[in-house]
Amino acid sequence: MFGFKRQIIPEKIGIIAGGGQFPLLFIEAARRAGRSVAVVAHRSETDPEVAKAADSCCWVKLGQLGKILSFFKKEGVGETVFVGTITKTRIFHDIMPDVRALTLWNKIDIKQDDAILRAVAGALEKDGVKVLESTIYLQELLFPRGTLTAKSLSKDQRKDVEFGWKNARAIGAMDIGQTVVVRDCSVVAVEAIEGTDAAIKRGGELAREKAVVVKVRKPGQDFRFDLPATGIQTIQSLASVKGAVLAVEAGQSLLFDREAMVAAADAAGIVVVGVVENSDGSLLID
After folding, report:
1. Distance CA 281, CA 275 (A)
2. Whole-angstrom distance, CA of residue 216 vs CA of residue 178
3. Type and span of the H or E element at 80
4. What pLDDT digit, counting tens, does each position of 224-263 carry?
5. pTM recorded for the entire structure
6. CA–CA separation, 151 vs 93, rounded Å?
7. Dmax of the chain from CA atoms?
8. Which residue of 3, 87, 165, 273 is 20 to 30 Å from 248, comparing CA positions?
């Protein structure tokens, strides 16, 4: 008798998509891994091209948790990822929580990034949807170690990076933000809900020029969501205030459009460097 191989249909993976290019990149990577994709797209955030690229899509407004859960159940989704950005200030003026979201919201004591995202992830997993690390198919997007630009750090800039690193780690521990802007070992701006680009512009204006931007992961950063991310827009923001340095934690953050980003940094005379923190707290900067 002839034997017939049973065709195994790849399991569908869910994508909870925000803004930016990450959702599209993830769809492409998931397809290369042989998986179909069901996308939850956020209105006013997600690029419509993401919906077009998906095998199925459900548009939601911020806070419609019940709709997300129902869509994933209908699509047979057992795993999902959070990819892309959500404008955090929208929680004050553009959110439409449903019953599931309100119930969850009332159980969260501290309304900050990690607490909110962990609570949403918990609700998904309670419904049988496992939340995976957002870099599962895109390890190549992790920020590399070392100097990426033609220009290297000066002695004084290295001191600013070391100083900024400790402060960035401290605000991360409090779940305030991931970025600080420093000059001459003085903190001129701390990232909060406004986001990295706004913090860079505010800090750069205060520093007047030569600002050093340090961006790190939060202590205990959950790789399933809210990884630090940089790209050409970060350089453009820094260049607009005549900033000097972008130092990012290597292997713990995302880097988009590397070639274009480095080219823009070189054109503006900005140093871009990926830094590693040793177990003893010392830094590997070069």
Report:
1. 12
2. 6
3. strand 79-83
4. 887 889 999 999 999 999 999 999 999 999 999 999 999 9
5. 0.88
6. 43
7. 80
8. 87
